[in-house]
Amino acid sequence: MSDTDEIERKRPNILVTGTPGTGKTVTASLIAEKTGLRHVNVGELIQQHKCYEGHDSTLDTHILDEEKLLDLMETIFQECAEENIGIVADYHSCELFPERWFDLVLVLRANTDVLFDRLTERGYNEKKRSENLEAEIMQVVLDEARESYALEIVQEVPSNTVEELESNAERCQVWVEQWVANNS
Fold first, then answer.
1. What percent of the chain has pLDDT over 90?
2. For an engineered disulfide with 80, which of 85, 127, 146, 147 has Cβ 3.0 to 4.6 Å away?
3. What 3-state DSSP class applies to 59?
């Protein structure tokens, strides 16, 4: 899908991003539930369609095949636009996605003590946990979002408690309703 044959969307697309362990998937699921947007868990998509080129044993992670992933997602975005369905996608990185795909980029932030506990619960090894904690401290994902998207669509929100996750989803619900009203 090129910019010239892009379908005029009736529903917005949201990207929920943040350091691993900040609550992206839970938040995106809540947003989808409250808004009727289709939840696309990019990490699961990568696994299901084998969008990787190998494995990094040091960090215990796959090496992403960006071209394969973007081609797959382009198809999903096209199909959803044709069906008048918006998307809420979640992934720990945002710079690889075309700016035109998203109307709102929600960057989840968590305190390092909360994040440490969440990553430990997931069984992250010391190197992987340390790298992710450092990324959160240095606000790597937030800076990446601000460099990749128009500043007015990037929103930084706290994601330490269940109440904060629910509040973020409720705010997105209001935002989606307003977007639809403004674009109908």
1. 86
2. 85
3. coil
